[in-house]
Every structure is written in C-alpha cells, then in structure tokens.
C-alpha cells in the first residue's frame, strides 16, 4: 500500500465536497478498490469513504412499484430486505461473492465499477433501473457504456438505485469458482409491457441486453420460446475459463434456466 488521505463524510453534501479539488476516489465497500490500490493499478491521493452516510443506506419501495436501494447498502442487506418483495433481485444479491464480500460490498460501488462479470449490472439493466447520483438520474440503458465504463462524471456519486419490481424474475449465474464472479450471468424480468433479458460475464463490452430473447419471451414466457435462438460468439470474452463459443452457449442455457425458475 502507499500513503494517502482518507475522509469519512457523514452526508452526501460533505462527500461531494470532499471529492472536489485534489485527486480523490470514492470508497464504497472496497471489495474492488482496495485490491486495486495494493497492486498500484490506481493511486488516488485521497479516499472518500461513503460507509458512514446514513442517507445512502437502506431499502424501501416507492409508489411507482420500485425497490429503492441506497448506494451504500451492502449486498447482504439487499438480499434480506427484498426476499419477499423482489425475489429475483434477492437471489442475485445473495449469490455475490461470499459472506464477507456480501457484508462489505455495496450496490453503488458495484455499479460504479461496472466490472464486466459483476452481478448488479445485470439486475440494473434487466429491470430498466434508474441510477440516482448526487446531481442527476441516469437510466440503466444509458448508464453502461462498456467494460469498466459508465456515464458517471468525475466526482459523481451513486446515491440510490431504483429498480422496477418485476411480475416474474430470476437470475442464473454460472459461477467461476475461484472468484465467485459470473462466467455468465443472466437476469430475466417479466413486466406487463414485455420481458427484459440482461447478460453479464460474457461480452468484451460488458453487460448487454439479449433483444432477440426479449422479443421471443414477451410473446411466450417459457424456455421453449428461445429454443431456436442462438447467440453469436463475436465479441465474447476469451480466457482460460471459457472460449467465446462456450460463453455464447451458456447465455442461452442460463436464460432458459432463469425463465423456468421465474415461472
């Protein structure tokens, strides 16, 4: 590790002020950032810890049928607090990492980092969530802009995430056993106006929607509806854990499993 300053603001306004000026980096649960600092892949002069901001914690529902989650809320809390209201989301949060990660990592930190194999981006894109920051609201379809890339601007903080509650939903994750990240993860959500299918872990461009499956499932919400579909291997991740063709195959398999489980 190297020398840096750290501030622990108690309000969003204080956090925004602390992020201005010298080179600063927001710190959520630190599950990605701390290892990154240890490897010198990032060397901010100051960390702004968000863990003590009470207004950024907690889970509730609003009058528009959305689950509203504070950006500093950890995965374990999301899993517990949405078990009855949004079981698909609860199941996703309960599969992230291990107990230590789930009790430290936050939804805001995960979405801000936008790891191409992280679980929460699939939930956000798969529900058409609204990402709330200290200065604006960003629709999930506009938020994700590629691997580790988002619409967030310098110094912007995710304060809340609002996810429309689906009629039926499920997340299926083919786990990479060493990291507990998704080799391929698929979040399926059925709404009155159609179905959304979001895929994480597979593409070099990060999380994406499988539009062909969405169209087929909107007409027939069953695994059989995608039986004749296939996913191109072009642009899929290739590494020691799986080839592009293997990941493309898994997308269809995990989508079918998610639909069956949701039904």
From TrEMBL:
Residue ranges annotated as transmembrane are none
Looking at the keywords, is Lyase present? no
Which stretches make up the FAD-binding PCMH-type domain?
Answer: 1-168
Q: Which keywords accompany this UniProt record?
A: FAD, Flavoprotein, Oxidoreductase
Source organism's superkingdom? Bacteria
Specify the species.
Cognatiyoonia koreensis
**Do you know which InterPro entries this protein is assigned to?**
CO_DH_flav_C, CO_DH_flav_C_dom_sf, Diverse_Substr_Oxidored, FAD-bd_PCMH, FAD-bd_PCMH-like_sf, FAD-bd_PCMH_sub1, FAD-bd_PCMH_sub2, Mopterin_DH_FAD-bd
- Is Signal included in the keywords of this UniProt record? no
**SMART domains cross-referenced by the UniProt entry:** CO_deh_flav_C
Q: Report a single Gene Ontology molecular function.
A: oxidoreductase activity
Residue runs in coiled coils: none
Q: What protein name does the entry list?
A: Carbon-monoxide dehydrogenase medium subunit
